[in-house]
Design a protein that fits this description.
Elements (H helix, E strand, L loop, with lengths): L1 H11 L10 E2 L6 E2 L6 H10 L3 E5 L7 E6 L14 H8 L5 E3 L4 H10 L4 E8 L8 E9 H10 L6
Parallel strand pairs: 2-3, 5-6
Antiparallel strand pairs: 1-7, 3-4, 6-7
Helix pairs in contact: 1-5
The structure holds adenosine-5'-diphosphate.
Length: 158
């Protein structure tokens, strides 16, 4: 039954981690913060269709500094030629981060508490020569990715 499938799916996420359901970084639609929001660019962003877009600084996709919500564009005058940086600075939507090996149940809990429902996924790199660990952005995860995992789980009959 569908109910059983959902129950099994909910149990299965207990064994899964973020990197198994995230959207990989190469497939994430992001914008550099210097992007000018003219009419053409706004039309392009709306066409692409994501609700939220990570924004990066200094031409470094590893350096996500904000989130642009497509609804932030609704009241914008394209002739003002505002930059993404300016619009992000005005709204200040916080960027959440989770580690790639965080269990899905833990991410689901934090999505339930906050209002974000989207997190950037980072991976830690420990090197023997450099003292501080470095971080690499490896993807993006939303509530949708976890819900999908719950609904799609197959019951394996053994
Ligand atoms: P949206 O409301 O933009 O459709 P959802 O939270 O419903 O976003 O997620 C739908 C799918 O799109 C998920 O797999 C999620 O990881 C992915 N996704 C969300 N935002 C982006 C983005 N900016 N670039 C690429 N994939 C994204």
């Amino acid at each position: 039954s569908d109910e059983l499938k959902i129950a099994v799916g909910a149990m299965e996420i207990a064994d899964k981690i973020v990197e198994q359901v995230m959207t990989k970084i190469d497939d994430v639609f992001m914008l550099p913060d210097e992007t000018i929001l003219n009419a053409k660019m706004i039309a392009e962003i709306v066409r692409i269709g994501y609700t939220r877009i990570p924004v990066y600084s200094e031409s470094d996709r590893n350096n996500v500094t904000g989130l642009l919500f497509v609804k932030d564009l609704a009241l914008l005058d394209p002739d003002d030629n505002f930059s993404v940086r300016t619009v992000c600075g005005y709204h200040q939507h916080p960027v959440k981060y989770v580690f790639n090996d965080t269990p899905l149940a833990v991410v689901l809990e934090s999505f339930k508490k906050g209002d974000g429902h989207l997190a950037m996924v980072k991976k830690v790199h420990i090197s023997e020569t450099v003292e501080d660990p470095s971080y690499e952005l490896v993807g993006l995860v939303t509530l949708e990715d976890i819900v999908e995992e719950i609904l799609q789980a197959e019951i394996v009959d053994e």
